[in-house]
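Sample intake sheet
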Amino acid sequence: MKIAVVGGTGLTGREVVRAVEARGHEPVVIARSVGVDIITGVGLDDALRGVGAIIDVSNAPTADAEAARAFFGTATSTILAAAARAGVGHHVVLSIVGIDRVAGNPHYAGKRRQEEVALAGSVPATVVRATQFHDFAAMVVSWSTTDGVAPIAPLLVQPIAVPDLAGVLVEVAGQAPVGGIVEVAGPKTEDLVDMARRTLAVRGETVELVPSWQGRFTVEMAGEVLLPGPAARIAPTTFEQWLATDPANGAGSA
């Protein structure tokens, strides 16, 4: 069938498009760069013609809670209206494990709004909550490094490989809508500070890591808040395997 990928030009979206093609479906990329705007709705009706399912992996271009809620709420409502007109049978939304347990994170506030709108809409929906990606620690270091020092929260996470997640999203899109939330995670719990240290070592980068709850992630995210529940689907690729194979880590170089 035809599967629309909202945010199909981004990191996750490109992997989802590849997974759609690998499973014999036809991807339809939804992004402003191809003339489709999920806020105004421009181009959506034409793009969704003949589409059987939507996978939404879009992201909000803001770190402000109210702006994130407004973006995700408007975008999801616009997508749902066009999907209903087109007769789309399944709306799959990518979200994040633990967002219902963290009140102060602006991005999470937006994602909660996205979930609410999607599950209350007229198009049957499934919310897929995933854990952080394997490159999350490297991203946090890049955000927080100043003069060679990076404060980093000692989060417990169960990171997942993006290609693994993409395959799950496509599989879910081809199944009956759940009308609720499912979780997917990587195979092993990791400490974010240790993940950062190991990533930097593989990449040959020198940054002093300072465990701290004073940065972007607060103590409300301590403990097992970001870990999946016992019913979560477990993807196969470990963080160690990603370190050894991801090109960004110098895999395959001399």
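Comment: Helices lie at 11-22, 44-47, 65-86, 106-120, 136-144, 162-173, 192-203, 239-245. Residues 65-86 form the longest helix (22 residues).
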